[in-house]
Predict the structure.
Amino acid sequence: MATVVEHTLSPSMSILDGSMNGPQPEERLRQIEAEQLKLLYAQAPIAFVISVVNATILVLFLRSEVPVSTLVTWWISLVGIYIARLILVWRYRQAKPDVVETRQWRIRFFIGVVYAG
């Protein structure tokens, strides 16, 4: 039984210490980051739509408490930011970046997050 456990654990152990013939740990981390970023960009459009719907509902509830011109200005600004972010998603999909370009696209996504609040 001990040999089975030892044999089962040894491949994963070799991945962690980089002795396996596959990608080295740094390269593997870059690949994981690239896949995570791909998921962010894939799921972003639905999140943008939901955010705009929520903002619209908020405007409807606040229209009796806040000047309508302020609400409309805020809503238009928000929609503009999300349109810019949708363009970023479209450009990401067109670019089909490799692992090396992950950092640039992650920074661009983060900038969009900061502007959106």
